[in-house]
Design brief:
Blueprint (H helix, E strand, L loop, with lengths): L2 E2 L12 E4 L5 E2 L12 E4 L5 E2 L5 E4 L2 E4 L4 E4 L10 E2 L2 E5 L14 H9 L19 H11 L20 H9 L19 H14 L24 H10 L7
Helix pairs in contact: 2-3, 4-5
Length: 248
């Protein structure tokens, strides 16, 4: 996204936080005007060009900055001045993971999952962004997203009792989100494949009532023939919804 247009999010009264990627160059006039609950806007990149009253409230005496709003920017980004930038209070944004560069394509997602309690990193301030995800990790993230429900009984022979992923696996199996790999095994430490990821997310969305009927043709991908039959429907849905976009 290089530009957010005029009045794009104006009057969004429920909006509290916004994170803007490093590609943004301009913010149109009144883009976030009258978003009264907005308290934090974080920028990954250089200071953008601003239109009129981007973050202002319309008051009887004229437009004034939204009360309590702070704009955060990273030390690496250019064009910012503190403590006030174009009339808005600013602050340096000390990002949580030392191994996630501010301009990395996955940086907003890494910060998001930490803030939402979905992931906790690997310790010592690191996220390990290039490390593969296991089946146990994915199901644990989904369990946290679902509020860590306590339902289900673990029946997999390779899932020990009372380890960090046991309850999440039991919940996921109870709701048909995972079915194991056969022979009573779940393979918790197996690396999650792209098609397994699509299937698990597809089943989760279906379980909570999200419409999973949208689908896209997979024939545009030269390796479409390698898709396992059990995963074809889920991958078609994931492609259509933009969850996966293929790889170079």
């Amino acid at each position: 996204v290089r530009s957010i247009g005029e009045k794009a999010f104006a009057f969004c009264g429920a909006l509290e936080q916004v994170t803007i990627g490093s590609s943004l160059r301009t913010l149109g006039s009144y883009a976030f005007a009258d978003c009264d609950r907005l308290t934090r806007v974080r920028f990954y990149g250089a200071a953008p060009e601003l239109g009129l009253h981007v973050f202002d409230d319309d008051r009887p005496g004229g437009y004034v900055p939204i009360s309590g709003l702070t704009l955060y920017f990273t030390p690496e980004a250019g064009g910012w001045t503190a403590p006030v930038w174009n009339g808005y209070p600013t602050a340096l944004w000390n990002r949580p993971f030392a191994d996630v560069p501010a301009f990395a394509w996955y940086a907003p997602a890494a910060d998001y999952v930490l803030e939402q309690g979905l992931m906790q990193g690997v310790g010592e301030g690191c996220f390990a962004p290039e490390s593969p995800m296991t089946r146990a990790m994915l199901v644990t993230v989904l369990g946290r997203y679902a509020g860590q429900p306590a339902e289900g009984t673990n029946s997999f022979t390779d899932v020990p009792a009372n380890v960090w992923y046991t309850q999440a696996v039991a919940w996921a199996a109870e709701n048909g989100i995972v079915t194991g790999i056969g022979g009573g095994r779940f393979d918790p430490h197996g690396q999650i494949t792209r098609e397994q990821l699509a299937v698990i997310l597809y089943r989760y969305c279906k379980a909570i009532g999200i419409d999973t009927s949208p689908s896209a043709e997979l024939s545009a991908f030269p390796d479409a023939a390698k898709v396992s039959p059990y995963a074809a429907e889920a991958l078609s849905w994931a492609v259509k919804t933009g969850l996966v976009t293929g790889s170079a």
